[in-house]
């Protein structure tokens, strides 16, 4: 799944307007703040399609203000247009997780305009290799895969966590894959497998670091066939693939942290 293009829709530079959860209001410095009812703010990287877009929709339906991070303005525009009744709860922002300046700009915008970020869903991801062997893989493919899947996730999380710590609340969901599970590690898709295994290690590390900050960090495998099985004619169950990410994004304060889940059930790392 590709990382998101962030394209500004009309009004994309403004915070998503509130409905049932209250509209953002202007603070004394002109920055829009969250509404009086405290509507949560979620950021979804790679939110312009697939799992990311499904999570954007469901979080907006839950009453959150959602920032859809994507690399191109055009894809962001198209994504918002299919969201129907919840489109006015979604703001599209340009985000390239491989670009430190892009990440920093978005984090600054969140702080200045919304004053918070309660939920981060790291859905930006690339699959650049195939079922071939790691010994034959051009290392540039591995580098580019790790730059998005691992370092992009790491970079964006570093930028957003200060906003979560300020409110002593946060939910971080790293979209991963069973191909990154060491318990089932084998040949094929080597760069992708290694990148997702590294995301698992990052998830565990950050969960431990943030344990005292009210921030829960988990990874999940959406209920989709892996790349090696998808080619066998198995349908992509996109309609149900966002259920586990949505659950992890809305965990109660005593919810689990540092886990890897599929269909809301822990699975081996």
Explain briefly what this protein structure is.
By secondary structure, the protein is of the alpha/beta class. Helices cover 37% and strands 15% of the residues. The strands form 2 sheets. The chain has an 8-stranded mixed β-sheet with strand order 5-4-3-6-7-8-9-10, sandwiched between helices. Strands 1-2 form a two-stranded antiparallel ribbon.
Brief descriptors of the model:
two-stranded antiparallel ribbon, 8 helices, alpha/beta, Rossmann fold, 15% strand, 269 residues
Oligomer type:
single chain
Can you give the helix content as a percent range? 25-40%
The global form is globular
The CA-CA distance between the termini, in Å, is: 21 Å
How many strand elements?
Answer: 10
Low-pLDDT stretches: 1-15, 17-37, 225-236
Rounded mean pLDDT is 85
Describe the structure in your own words:
This protein has helices spanning 50-61, 73-81, 100-114, 139-167, 190-209, 227-230, 238-241, 243-249, and strands at residues 25-26, 32-33, 41-45, 65-70, 90-94, 119-122, 170-175, 215-220, 260-262, 265-266. With 269 residues, the protein is α/β, with parallel strands linked by helices. The chain has one domain: Rossmann fold, CATH 3.40.50.720. The strands form two sheets. It has an eight-stranded mixed β-sheet, sandwiched between helices. A two-stranded antiparallel ribbon has the order 1-2. Strand 1 and strand 2 (32-33) form a beta hairpin. Helix 3 runs parallel beside helix 4 and helix 4 (139-167) runs parallel beside helix 5 (190-209). Residues 1-15, 17-37 and 225-236 have low confidence and may be disordered.
């Amino acid at each position: 799944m590709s990382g998101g293009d962030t394209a500004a829709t009309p009004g994309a530079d403004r915070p998503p307007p509130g409905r049932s959860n209250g509209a953002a209001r202007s603070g004394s410095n002109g920055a829009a703040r969250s509404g009086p009812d405290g509507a949560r703010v979620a950021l979804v990287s790679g939110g312009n399609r697939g799992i990311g877009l499904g999570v954007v929709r469901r979080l907006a339906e839950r009453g959150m203000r959602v920032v859809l991070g994507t690399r191109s303005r055009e894809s962001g525009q198209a994504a918002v247009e299919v969201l129907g009744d919840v489109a006015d709860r979604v703001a599209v922002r340009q985000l390239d997780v491989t670009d430190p300046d892009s990440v920093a700009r978005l984090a600054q915008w969140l702080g200045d305009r919304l004053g918070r970020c309660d939920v981060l869903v790291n859905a930006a991801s690339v699959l650049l290799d195939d079922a071939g062997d790691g010994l034959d893989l051009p290392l540039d493919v591995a580098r580019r895969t790790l730059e998005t899947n691992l370092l992009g996730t790491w970079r964006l999380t570093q930028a957003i966590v200060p906003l979560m710590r300020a409110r002593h609340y946060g939910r971080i969901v790293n979209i991963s894959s069973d191909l990154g599970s060491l318990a089932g590690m084998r040949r094929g898709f080597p760069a992708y497998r290694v990148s997702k295994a590294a995301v698992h290690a990052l998830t565990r590390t950050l969960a431990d670091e943030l344990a005292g900050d009210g921030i829960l960090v988990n990874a999940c495998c959406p209920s989709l066939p892996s790349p090696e099985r998808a080619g066998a004619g198995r349908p992509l169950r996109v309609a149900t693939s966002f259920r586990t990410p949505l659950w992890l994004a809305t965990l109660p304060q005593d919810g689990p942290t540092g886990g890897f889940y599929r269909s809301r059930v822990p699975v081996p790392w």
